[in-house]
Structure formats: structure tokens, C-alpha cells
TrEMBL record:
Keywords: Coiled coil, Membrane, Transmembrane, Transmembrane helix. Residues 141-150 have a biased composition (Low complexity). It is a single-pass type IV membrane protein. InterPro entries: Ig-like_fold (IPR013783), MSP_dom (IPR000535), PapD-like_sf (IPR008962), VAP (IPR016763). It holds the Pfam family Motile_Sperm. Residues 184-211 form a coiled coil. The keyword Transmembrane helix applies. It is found in: Membrane. Residues 127-155 are annotated as: Disordered. Residues 6-126 form the MSP domain. It comes from Hevea brasiliensis (Para rubber tree). Belongs to the VAMP-associated protein (VAP) (TC 9.B.17) family. This is MSP domain-containing protein. The chain crosses the membrane at residues 217-238.
């Protein structure tokens, strides 16, 4: 943190989690330590690379102002992740009631006798935060207490068993407390009940499929017999006439 007479600036290093082809932003907080209006202006050695909002403004007495610095998307990574870019923040007292429209370059001209405070800020590239490593499929520690569903909509009993065991082991304390054991027994009973229900449903589905096939075959055979009898009767009537 910079502790000048007018403004406290935090941080003094602009840290960008560098990623290719992606805009990255970081923020500065300016705190007015005085009872006066303070004007500020932000400059950089590489204005085409960075966007500063606001790049100039007024910090009211005993208040703060946030400045957002955005680095444009970069196509290439710098050598050894080193950056030579720098920022300069200038601040000066101004009259009460001043606004951003009142700010001009002459206010920050030291040669004109203005007392201008300056603070230099470095730019650092840091590695972006790493995403959490994925848990290998089938690992009991990272598995979810949900079984997969088969094509006919019935949960797979083996997977349900593995998920229940993983759920129980995850929440089972090291001292094998009675409460944890009761939870394991309850999950085991639910697992066995689910397996029995799955088996019963599969048997009922197979039975319905077989009965449906028989019914369709029976209807087709009766239709053939009916057509045959109808043909015989019509033939007999035609001969008789």
C-alpha cells in the first residue's frame, strides 16, 4: 500500500492472471486521507495494451474510489512471463466541489508550481488459478450416491450398491460410531430392497413382453381361420345358386 499525503493506493503491483486470447482485469483502490477534494490521473507506458476506467477522476474527502485496469487479449505469451509495463498515478489537491470535468493536464504540471504526488505501479503476470483435478471414474471417494439407469428405466443394482457403500464410507467417522453403523445398515437394507424391486420389475416386463407376443400371434391365427371359413361359405352358396 502506498501511503502518500493525499491518497493511499492498494495494491502497488497490478497482478494479471495471464491467459492467451483473453481480456484480464484487476482493480486499484484509492483512499483519500485528507479533508480536501483530490484529483487523480493514471498513465501507462503501453496505452494500447491497457484500458483504465476511470483514467482520471475526483476522490471525495475521506472516501475511496475504485479503478479498473483491463489488459487486452494477448496473442503471444511474454518471454519467461516477465512484463516491463508500468503505470504512474498522479494526484493533486483541487477545489471543493470539483468534478471529473474540471480535470485538465495543467493541474498535474509540476513546472507550474503544483504539488503533485506520484506513485509508480508495477505489472506482474501470475499463473491463472488451476481448475480442480477430476476424480477418476469409479473412484469411491469421488463417486456420487446415485446409481445409473438402464434402458428400461430401472436402476442398476450393482452401481446402487457401490454408491451406497461409498456414501456410507465417506460419512463414516474414524471411531466407527454407532450412529454411522446404523446409517450403513439402513443403506444396506435400502440397497437390498432396491435390488429385489429391480429383479421383480424385470421379471414382470419379460412376462408382459411374452404375453404380448402370444396375443398378437393368437389374433393373427384366428383371423386366418375366419377368412378361410368365410371363403368356404361363399363358395358353397355360389355353387348352390
Amino acid at each position: 500500500m502506498s501511503t502518500g499525503e493525499l491518497l493511499s493506493i492498494e495494491p502497488l503491483e497490478l497482478k494479471f492472471p495471464f491467459e492467451l486470447k483473453k481480456q484480464i482485469s484487476c482493480s486499484l483502490q484509492l483512499s483519500n486521507k485528507t479533508d480536501n477534494y483530490v484529483a487523480f490521473k493514471v498513465k501507462t507506458t503501453n496505452p494500447k495494451k491497457y484500458c483504465v476506467r476511470p483514467n482520471a477522476g475526483i476522490v471525495l474527502p475521506r472516501s475511496t474510489c475504485d479503478v479498473i485496469v483491463t489488459m487486452q487479449a494477448q496473442k503471444e505469451a511474454p518471454a519467461e512471463m516477465q512484463c516491463k509495463d508500468k503505470f504512474l498515478l498522479q494526484s493533486v489537491r483541487t477545489h471543493d466541489g470539483a468534478t471529473a470535468k474540471d480535470i485538465n493536464a495543467e493541474m498535474f504540471n509540476k513546472e507550474a508550481g503544483h504539488q503533485v504526488e506520484e506513485c509508480k505501479l508495477r505489472v506482474l503476470y501470475v499463473s491463472p488459478p488451476q481448475p480442480p483435478s477430476p476424480v477418476p471414474e469409479g473412484s469411491e471417494e469421488g463417486s456420487s450416491p446415485r446409481g445409473s439407469v438402464s434402458d428400461n428405466g430401472i436402476a442398476n443394482g450393482a452401481e446402487f450398491s457401490n454408491a451406497s457403500r461409498a456414501f456410507a464410507e465417506r460419512f463414516e467417522p474414524q471411531d466407527k460410531s454407532s450412529e454411522a453403523k446404523a446409517l450403513i445398515l439402513k443403506l444396506t437394507d435400502e440397497k437390498n430392497s432396491a435390488i429385489q424391486q429391480n429383479t421383480k420389475l424385470r421379471q414382470e416386463l419379460e412376462l408382459l413382453k411374452r404375453e404380448g407376443s402370444k396375443n398378437r400371434a393368437g389374433v393373427s391365427f384366428m383371423f386366418v381361420i375366419f377368412v378361410g371359413l368365410l371363403g368356404i361359405i361363399l363358395g358353397y352358396l355360389m355353387k348352390k345358386s
